[in-house]
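re: the backbone from monday

yeah here it is again, tokenized this time
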């Protein structure tokens, strides 16, 4: 049974069937329903994220732009996986869109939409589902997962580079200590810090 990591230990719930439910359709331009072969996956992801977030959630869109910019700086150490990381950076927060929010887990909601409506690359869906150490089931390869966590957790809500400790403090301040998000981040903090350290080490070695 897959246990949701953001629930209290005493309130764990079975989410193993959530990913199999039908995704809710949203008003997305038809030309964005599949990856155009003439585009890179990152360019497609940018266009899709823009269509979903830019008008509906402008501050979230600013954050996503900053995360994508961070991801582009990691292209040398990631090599062939760099485009996939940038795509995941563009799409990691689309689950905050109200039309997609069904489970309360924005990573999972976004991944289900990418899988069921956009028919996106499976590894891209896994990266979106598990970003910033939200492990539900079948996590993506660690270097890619670490890189996306690094990009997300060193970018402010307004898209500016920040230190990871400042980002974590901002999340707690914004949601309050008792909020589900704050409790989840508190439990994930050791993994988040470890992921950020791993990326710093790989970047220095490149």
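seq for it, each position gets an aa:
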């Amino acid at each position: 049974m897959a246990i949701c990591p953001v629930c209290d230990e005493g309130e764990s719930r079975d989410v193993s069937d959530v990913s199999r439910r039908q995704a809710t359709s949203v008003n997305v331009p038809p030309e964005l329903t599949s990856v155009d072969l003439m585009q890179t996956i990152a360019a497609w992801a940018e266009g899709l994220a823009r269509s979903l977030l830019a008008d509906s959630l402008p501050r979230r869109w600013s954050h996503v732009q900053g995360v994508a910019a961070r991801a582009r700086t990691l292209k040398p150490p990631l090599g062939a996986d760099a485009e996939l990381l940038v795509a995941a950076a563009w799409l990691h927060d689309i689950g905050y869109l109200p039309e997609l929010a069904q489970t309360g887990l924005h990573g999972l909601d976004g991944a289900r939409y990418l899988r069921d409506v956009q028919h996106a690359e499976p590894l891209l869906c896994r990266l979106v589902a598990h970003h910033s150490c939200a492990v539900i089931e079948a996590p993506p390869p660690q270097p890619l997962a670490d890189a996306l966590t690094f990009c997300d957790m060193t970018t402010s809500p307004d898209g500016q580079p920040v230190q990871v400790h400042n980002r974590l403090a901002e999340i707690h301040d914004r949601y309050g200590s008792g909020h589900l998000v704050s409790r989840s981040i508190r439990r994930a903090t050791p993994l988040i810090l470890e992921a950020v350290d791993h990326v710093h080490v790989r970047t220095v070695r490149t």
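The chain has one domain: 36-205. Residues 1-38 have pLDDT under 50 and may be disordered.
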